[in-house]
Structure formats: C-alpha cells, structure tokens
Design a protein that fits this description.
Arc Repressor Mutant, subunit A; Tetracycline Repressor, domain 2; 2 domains; 74% helix; homodimer; DNA-binding; mainly alpha
Amino acid sequence: MSKPEKRDEIVRAALEMIAEHGFHGAPMAMIADKAGVGAGTIYRYFENKDLLITELYRELEERIYAAVLVGYDPEKPIRERFLYLGTAVLGYFIANPLDFRYLEQFHNSPYGMAYRRDRISGKREDRDMYRELFEGGVAQQVVKDFPLAILFALTFGPLLAVARDHILNFIVLDDELILRTIEACWDGVKR
Amino acid sequence: MSKPEKRDEIVRAALEMIAEHGFHGAPMAMIADKAGVGAGTIYRYFENKDLLITELYRELEERIYAAVLVGYDPEKPIRERFLYLGTAVLGYFIANPLDFRYLEQFHNSPYGMAYRRDRISGKREDRDMYRELFEGGVAQQVVKDFPLAILFALTFGPLLAVARDHILNFIVLDDELILRTIEACWDGVKR
DNA sequence: GCTTACAGAATGAATGTTCATTCCGCTGTA
DNA sequence: TACAGCGGAATGAACATTCATTCTGTAAGC
C-alpha cells in the first residue's frame, strides 16, 4: 500500500468506526484493525487521536462544501437558492450517512463546542453561502427579521432532525417528501 | 444526611457533572465528590453507572412533563396550544439549563438511541401531548399533512437548536424573541 | 441515665479492565 | 548492508466497581 493510500485507509476506517460507535466506542486498535494497519502506524500519520478526529472533521466539511457548491447559483432568487441549498445538504447526508453520523458526534462533543465557539466569535472566516443567503434575504425583506442564529436554527434544526430520523430508519424520505419538508422550512423563515 | 436526601445529592451531582462534562468526562469518583459521599456509596443507591444515567433521565423527563402540563388546556384551538407547548418547553429549558444539557447528552448517546427506538416502535406507551396535538391538527386540516416524525422535526428541531444557542451564550433570547421564534415554527407547520 | 452490642450504611483503598500511546525488533527495498 | 516504514506487544494512566473496614444510630441490659 502506498503512503497516501494508507493514510486514506486510516481516515476511512476512523470515519466508519466513529460514526457507528462514537468517539469512545472506537478505540485506536479498532480503527487500526479496520484500516488493515498496525496500531502504531496511525501515529505515523496523526500525532494523536484528537488530531485525527479534528482533521477528519475538516476533511468532511470540505467535501460537503464542495458537493453543495456544485449547482449553486448565487444569482437566482432567494427562495430558489434556499430550496436548492436545503435539498443539496439533505441529499448529501442521505447519500453519505457515515459523514452525517460523524458530524453529529463531533458537534455534540467538546471538540464541536470549541469549534462552534470559535466560528461564532468570528475566529474562523467562513465563506458561508448560508450566512450570505440569509443576510440577503433579510435585507430584501423576503425573510423574517431574525438574528442569524435563529434563521439557522429554523433551517438546520428540522433538516438535521429529518436526516437523523431517515438515517436511523425511523422514517423513509423520498424526493417529494424532502422537497415538501424544505418548503415547510421556507414557510417558517419567509416573511 | 437522611437516606433519601443522600440519594438526592447523588442525583443532583450526577446531573451537574454529566451536563457539564459529558458522560465520559464525569467519572463516578467526581460525582461522588460533588455529592459529598464516598465513591462506594453511589452503589448503594444505583446498581451501576448505566442505571444511574437512565434513571436520572427518567426523572428529568417526568419533571419536564409535569412543568409543561401545568397551564395546558386541551380544549383550546390548535394554534394556541402549539404556541403554549412551544414556549413552555423552551421556557423550561432556559430556566433549567443543566436539564437541557443532560437531555442532549443523553439523546446523542447509545442510551438515547435505544430509548428512541423503543419509543418509536411503540414499546413505550407515551401519553404525548405533542403527538395528540399534531394528529388533531392534521385531522382538522390546520396542519400540513406530514408524517408525525417530520412535524416533530419542524417543531423541535428549531426549538432545541435555539435553546442550545441560548444556553451556550451564542444568542440571548427574551420573551418576545421566543414567541416570534415559536410563531415561525408554526408558520412552518401550519397549512 | 448510662453502657454495650449490633445491624445497617458509608467509606475509600485495592482490583481488574480498557484504552491511548510508545518502543523496539522486523521486513522489504535500494 | 543500511534504512525507512511497520506492526503489535508493552506500558502506564484512567476508570468503574468491589469489599474489608469503619462509623452511626438504636435498643437492650443494668
């Protein structure tokens, strides 16, 4: 196995094990096994478990951002962009349940809390389409005049809940139901 | 300290430590310390950590249910009941941030998954005002015709997100903003 | 009223287990 | 032969849980 290939295997295995069993249910030995490498080998690529975890998070964020960006047209009207972005993320999560589960684990952990705090306090410049969309919507009086955080909550709250329910097999989403759900979110957000 | 008093101290300490540091950041020794009892003492009241955790969850659920029930009038129109239930839970969470943080930890853990699975598959008869409310709303054609799980997502998704943001000091909610937020949820759910 | 005996509670040091991380000998390659 | 890269056993720290011991309150015996 070549060097970058091995690194990839480790990342893939970590994603799978952690998504399925949580940070604490996924010992390094288990990840190493799944990746088909020795336990010590992981430490040739990642200084420690924490760094593996945050690095993996960053890679996922990147992937999702890239996936959603394809097909996004910032010139379209607000409502249309909102529906696109909503269905795109939800679609990504449904197509990549492991990614979704991993993100959830991450967000609900001390790692995620720190990360979020940084982001809100602006330590991370985020090239965020969503922020831009909402700010535009409020300015054009198409969207309710709420603080950004509440608009996010009204959108991503249902989105993530629905993705979770689908991935855990509590409901079955088809394209029509997805669209209707995002439209309902829009009803909550629009003026 | 009397016997039930001591049990209470243990439960209170467990709530606080777990809410603040997560299940894995709250060793039994730490909980015992906070409760002012010996480590072994906890085991006189709870067979093991798992049982302490699930028992505490049940107690919290009970408290919240009781708190919200006060002032709920099943005779009122759907919209009014929806707004009441929304503000009531959100208000409870804001007044009891530890309870909220604990519930979140619980839901995002294997404990919570199992619990949820049981609930959905109907193994727990739940005397759920929310379910009843939505079912009534759909029947009266006041509420969009969605599966129950989606209506829950549209309501609790934003609610929990907003509660989290407030408790972590990412936003500040006042009564007016709370009401407007719940109204926005209603916009998402109503026909 | 005072002392002694005893049962049930409480305690916390000791135990065994589960990891993350380290270390050193091995192997395939140049 | 020399060496980079690996593997996986060894190490030590962090815990949950146990259990031999200590404490406390109650009640019988005087």
